[in-house]
Amino acid sequence: MTEGQLQMIKGNEAVAEAGVRAGCRFFFGYPITPQNELPEYMSGRLSEVGGTFLQAESEVAAINMVYGAAGAGVRVMTSSSSPGISLKQEGISYIAGAELPCVIVNMVRGGPGLGSIQPAQSDYFQSTKGGGHGDYRMVVLAPATLQEMVDLTYEAFDIADRYRNPVMIQGDGVIGQMMEPVAFPPLMDPADLPAKEWATTGRRGRDALNLINSLYLDPDECWAHNRKLAEKYARMEQAEVRYEIDHEDADYFIVAYGTTARIARRSVKDLRDAGHSVGLLRPISLWPFPSKAFEGLAGQARGYLTVEMSLGQMVEDVRLSVDSSTPVEFYGTAGGVMPRHQDITEQMEKLVARTGDNR
Amino acid sequence: MKKVFTRPRALADRPTHYCPGCIHGVAHRMIAQLMDEMELTDRAVGISPVGCAVFAYNYLDCDFQQAAHGRAPAVATGIKRAWPDAFVFAYQGDGDLASIGTAEIIHAASRGENISVVFINNAIYGMTGGQMAPTTLEGQRTTTSPAGRDLKSTGHPMRMTEMLATLPGVAYLARGSCHDVKHIKATERYLRKAFEAQEAGHGFGMVEIVANCPTNWGMSPVESIDWIKENMLPYFPLGEFRTTEEVD
Ligand SMILES: Cc1ncc(C[n+]2csc(CCOP(=O)(O)OP(=O)(O)O)c2C)c(N)n1
After folding, report:
1. How far is the CA of B55 from the centre of ligand 1 (A)?
2. Average predicted confidence (pLDDT) for chain B
3. Which residues of A touch B86 (CB under 8 A)?
4. DSSP string spanning B202-218?
5. In A22-107, where does DSSP find H-type helix?
6. Residue ranges per structural domain of chain B
7. What pLDDT, on a 0 to 100 scale, did the predictor assign at position A318?
8. CA-CA distance, A317 to A324, in Å (whole number)?
9. The CATH number fitting domain A243-354, selected from 3.40.640.10, 2.60.40.1120, 3.50.50.60, 3.40.50.920
10. Alpha-helical segments (H) within chain B
């Protein structure tokens, strides 16, 4: 695959290739639909570049292999879909607690339980509010196109290393399964990456011992550790917010991310063609949530329609980001059903009618 | 004057948190001794479990990762794959290895993962206050089997070493004990062979060490040693179960 040239590729393969390009040479995973092409691709690709692919006995084992490899200082990645991501939660909590960098891909499918294998966005709470135990946060990036997913994945490894924190790429069954033209960034050589002096490589002449650990038995020490983490999360909230707004001067906005944002774009076009002043606010970082995008629209936006493939999860963050007099409505489909653009359009027309836009 | 006994260099010069008479300390010392003799310390990465040995990183003078309960073999896998020339060893109790972590130990062994595992079998959950373990003996009283372990409702004590010996990928397996000097010496030889198997790239090695828990067994250290001899050893036979020569 040549660098910079457009080529058709499937989402699950694109995110895998982006990881390899970013210098990731270690992948631990377990099969689950709709992300199987990702480990399948990695199994071949990593052997070409001298990396390690291992199909673990479970998602629990896979995320703990990630813990070990991340703690040993290498760029490492795992992927799964909703039920498997649930199993990884203990490991993600340990990874966050021990401050290890890694990239986790979740191609979300319908839940709860075994749910369905079709696209969904019902893991938003789990990924952005800390699905495992304890106070922790991870950067969660939700691409809407394969090119964006490739670029975000490439960057995700840098973000993870910068903060020593897990980063999640959150797609869904559509993003994972569809094909689009993508241009790949250059292939990084892991040898060119800065060494991680904290990693457990064996001492190899080093005086101090390195320890990867999340245990602080003394509550005061554990609190100090939590305060240190909170400071880091505050820095991440400052620097890692990503979003996109279409039609910044609009009166009304649809708020949607990932696949849903693509569908909502069509609704925005139809609504504008019908004379309504409607734009799209697309969070790219689900955590940190782009609250400041809403602050920028305060006094201008007359209403928001949040659309999700869930029963309403991100809408809570939207409500927290706007003043209480601005209406925030929700429209969603769940269980693997995608919203129709006509239905989104109709919902927005109702919101506009109710709140008195008469242009 | 000739020095006949000294603290291994790889053993930190500080008191441990273990209860008086506990065999965890003996096991740590054996590992340290071997790390000295085999010159492993500078390349070693240990994995400490959830259990009484969680603080092993305070006592052994090498890099360490602390793993979630039962996951040490998976964590060891991640480390060893990243640094194949490192000496990677996991240290686990019987709750950790034989209960919550059964999948991880079986699959690490089955893959022939080139790591060493030190398995401390004290037939009880020490750290959480003496609950029943998968290795608790029939009739043994614990805080969750107050009338003694009943095989009908809780099943039989698990012999992990024998189970793992059925897996073709395994390079070395042995069960030792630390109830007297002779057996400590034998256990040290087993550990050396397991470590050598890793160093030679032969693959997965584990040494189970039959151990005591005076505190939660409700015995003096001396009584606990007698209890090992009378009760543990008949059910958990000592010896080598797989040696490297058998690996093809
Ligand atoms: C997921 C999880 N479950 C339970 C515990 C509580 N816990 C801590 S130590 C332990 C048992 C350890 O027993 P064992 O492995 O036999 O080691 P010992 O303490 O006897 O050396 C348990 C259940 C935990 N920390 N994490």
Report:
1. 13
2. 97
3. 72, 201-202
4. ---EEEEEE---HHHHT
5. 37-48, 59-71, 82-87, 89-97
6. 24-247
7. 98
8. 13
9. 3.40.50.920
10. 23-37, 72-82, 94-95, 102-110, 151-154, 160-164, 181-199, 214-217, 221-227, 233-235
What is the distance in A from the centroid of ligand 1 to the CA of A79? Answer: 28
pLDDT, residue B2, reads: 86
User: Any idea where the domains of chain A sit in the sequence?
Assistant: 7-239, 243-354
Q: List the CATH code of the domain at A7-239.
A: 3.40.50.970
- Cα of A122 to nearest chain B Cα, Å: 27
Q: In this complex, do A202 and B54 lie within 8 Å of one another by their Cβ atoms?
A: no
Interface mutation target, options B13, B79, B117, chain A, most CBs of A under 10 Å: B79
pLDDT of residue A359: 44
13-32 in chain A: CB under 8 A from chain B? 26, 28
Chain B: residue whose CA lies nearest to A62: B74
pLDDT at B100 (0 to 100): 98
Residue B152 phi/psi, 5-degree rounding, is -60, -45
CA-to-CA separations, B6 to A48, A96, A201, B14, B29, in angstroms, rounded:
50, 40, 28, 14, 11
The pLDDT-based confidence of A356 (bands split at 50, 70, 90) is: confident
In B, minimum Cα distance to A100 occurs at B65
Judge: B43–A56 Cβ closer than 8 Å, yes or no: no
* Whether ipTM exceeds 0.95: yes
Ligand 1 binding pocket (C-beta < 6 A) is B 50-53, 69, 93-96, 120, 122, 124-128, 133
Q: Which of B21, B51, B17 is nearest to B225 (CA)?
A: B21
Taking only the tens place, the pLDDT of each residue in A285-305 is 999 999 999 999 999 999 999
Nearest CA to ligand 1 atom 2: B69
Single-letter amino acid, residue A53? F
Question: Which pLDDT does position B3 carry in this prediction?
Answer: 87
A68 with B65: Cβ contact below 8 A:
yes
Chain B positions in Cβ-Cβ contact with residue A212 (cut-off 8 Å): 64-66
Q: Which range (A2-16, A164-178, A230-244, A300-314) has the least confidence?
A: A2-16
Give the residue, by CA position, lying nearest to ligand 1 atom 13.
B125
CATH 3.40.50.1100 matches B24-247: no
A120 vs A117: CA distance, rounded Å: 9
Closest residue, chain A, to B39 (C-alpha): A204
CB contact at 8 A, B48 and B64: yes
- Mean pLDDT, each 10-residue run in order, chain B (248 residues): 90 96 97 98 98 98 98 98 98 98 98 98 97 98 98 98 96 97 98 98 98 98 98 98 73
Cβ of residue B39 closer than 8 Å to a chain A Cβ: no
Residue with tokens 């990693």: A199
| Chain mean pLDDT for chain A | 97
Question: Testing the interface with B: which of A212, A216, A225 to mutate, by most B Cβ within 10 A?
Answer: A212
pLDDT digit string (tens) for A122-134? 999 999 999 999 9
